[in-house]
Amino acid sequence: MFDPAAWLQASRPLAQVNLVVPLWLGQALAFAHTGAFRLPTLYASQMFVALLLLVIVFSNDYADRDTDAANTTYNEFSGGSRVLPEGRLRPGELRDAAWLALIGLAALSLWLALGAGRPWAPAFVAGAALLVWIYNFPPLRLSYRGGGEIVQGLGTGVLLPLFGFYVQAGSLAAFPWLALAPLFLLGVVGNFLTSLPDVPSDRSSGKRSYAVRRGQWAARRHSLELLVMAALMGGLVVPGLGAAGVALLAAPALVLVARSVPLLGSADAEQRDECRRFILLVAGAGHLQCVLWSLALVVVGFLRP
């Protein structure tokens, strides 16, 4: 019997923010550098990331079903949607739903290519599908072999900003390529954070996440270091932003980082409340930084001659 509540749980709506924020930033970059912005294109791009999220979360749940079943330290940011361990859906249903979402994503990209004059849109779908496969499935399966953080950095920190820019501007000719450096770092940080609660089950199942390979304390410390580095690279994202502007836009995120420092030594997966608080603070800092950059880019766009 079809269970709408189970499918809503499987779709993990909270995870949408991880895709929407870099997508919006890419479109803000397009507005700042070219003046291009169309509301229908924004709607189409939102549908794009909604379908992409379904491909990602359904695939992740299917690929991680054994590890998630043994996970007792998960929270709302990790450990999958829990529909498989709870018996609310079957693995084959999620596998088929992932394929269906991918077909929908491909169809949308063809509409963008043929109906909206964005011929390279299907290439972004192919790139996203390749990253999902590399992350989750053999022969590479980097989320288990090690290197999943690089894949997530490429997905959320490179592919999505490029797609957001492309669908609005119609070309990548004016894209500020150095802006991808801090965005990639923030994508890597996102992977570090979501792996933290899962360390015990990941270790027992042989999943070599960054936190398993380097240790939980090191993963927390490195997430803060990379986030600070990214925040201080705001001049690569917002054109004409001087040192004072970089500091001003970085300050709110750095405040959240500072609040997370006391948790560095104690927020292990087994300390579920502290681990959750650390993730909330640091992930919130990363998303806030991207939103502030996006708002600054919109201002730059309005001030264009």
Secondary structure tally, helices? 14
* Overall tally of domains: 1
Helix content: over 70%
From the alpha carbons, calculate the radius of gyration and give it in angstroms. Answer: 19 Å
- Beta-strand portion reads under 5%
Average pLDDT confidence is 96
Structural class: mainly alpha
| N-to-C SSE string, H for helix and E for strand | HHHHHHHHHHHHHH
* N-end to C-end Cα span: 58 Å
Query: What's the story with the biggest beta sheet?
Result: none
Number of strands: 0
Principal-axes geometry comes out as: globular
Low-confidence stretches: none
Question: How would you sum up this structure, described in words?
Answer:
Pfam families: UbiA. This is Prenyltransferase. InterPro entries: UbiA_prenyltransferase, UbiA_sf, UBIAD1. The protein has one domain. The model has no long low-confidence stretch (mean pLDDT 96). The protein has helices at residues 4-11, 16-34, 39-63, 65-69, 91-115, 121-136, 142-145, 148-169, 180-195, 199-205, 210-214, 216-231, 243-260, 272-302. Helix 3 packs parallel to helix 6 (121-136), helix 5 packs antiparallel against helix 6 (121-136) and helix 9 packs antiparallel against helix 14. It has 305 residues and is an all-alpha fold. The protein is globular. The chain is 71% helix and 0% strand.
